[in-house]
Amino acid sequence: MKFKEIIEKLASDVKDYNILSDPALSQVASLEEATVGTITYIEGPRFAHLLETTAASAIILPADASLADRATNSGLAWLTTDNPRLFFAQTISLFYKPFRPVSSIHPTAVISEDVVLGKDVAIGAHVVINSHVQIGDGVCIHANVVIYPGVTVGDRTTLHANCTIHERTIVGADCVIHSGAVIGSEGFGFVPTKEGWYKMEQSGFTVLEDGVEVGCNSTIDRPAVGRTLIKSQTKLDNMVHIAHGCTVGSGCALAAQVGLAGGVEIGDRVILAGQVGVANQVKIGKGVIVSAQSGVHSDVEAGQVISGSPAVPNKLYLKVSAIYKRLPEMYQLFKEIAK
Fold first, then answer.
1. CATH at 37
2. First to last CA, the chain
3. pTM metric for this prediction
4. Owning domain of residue 15
5. Closest CA to 19 of 1, 45, 32, 44
6. pLDDT digits (tens, 9 = 90+) for 114-138
7. Catalytic amino acids?
């Protein structure tokens, strides 16, 4: 693909460009690993020095005249855009398309007679689809997926190999469920008695709205009553656990090993970094950012950035961390004063 073709295909996001010799491009690459015939990007002046050393043939830049001049002087074809990382992601899609099997049903798939299948559905080897399931148009179900009775899967959703969708689950349109994920499994509900733990049946529902993505080996539990809800366009990384009765707002991002206890409510566009834990029934407001390995034990107001365990406002956490490093010398000083 010629550099000019990329500009033409994504023209609405291009601010300025210089095609130089209009190089032929065969793939995308990081700035450090780029070779001749690749296109790469930088997000700002911090990486400007690499413009002189990269072997890339073309580069995506922020709207910065000085960076554009340096790229020209280095013999790089370039374009500028308001969001280089987003433009790079769009460029990747021009070179790479994820594997999708042709629309067909593998002969080893086991599908109940009353299942409703949409148009152009792809069903892989050893898939099991139980009774009263509805599958939308353009759905792709890879090998070894198991779908329990009564499930609904929306249009164009992809279920990757070896994921499991339990009963009383509704999966919206354009969702992606990655390998090993389990959606709608029984919540952890047991009542303590003198004789031991009495199992509370989980009769509620699990709902994933449109555009939700669930990473490998993540789990989303259904509740005893009511529903566990993941709202539209929310993205879950690998090994995330959402307990029974949680509500996660729209446009959220939960990184690997995040764990939500039962009944947690999360507002829209919240970011939970890796290994964040959220305690039972906690409410987290819209737009909150929680840094990695934080423990959230109480409600958080909208817009806050919090860190630590127990989590506190990030600015306070940074001050405390700075003091923590000085504790040994402070202790020595205290001992001297106490003499």
1. 3.40.1390.10
2. 77
3. 0.92
4. 3-95
5. 1
6. 999 999 999 999 999 999 999 999 9
7. 244
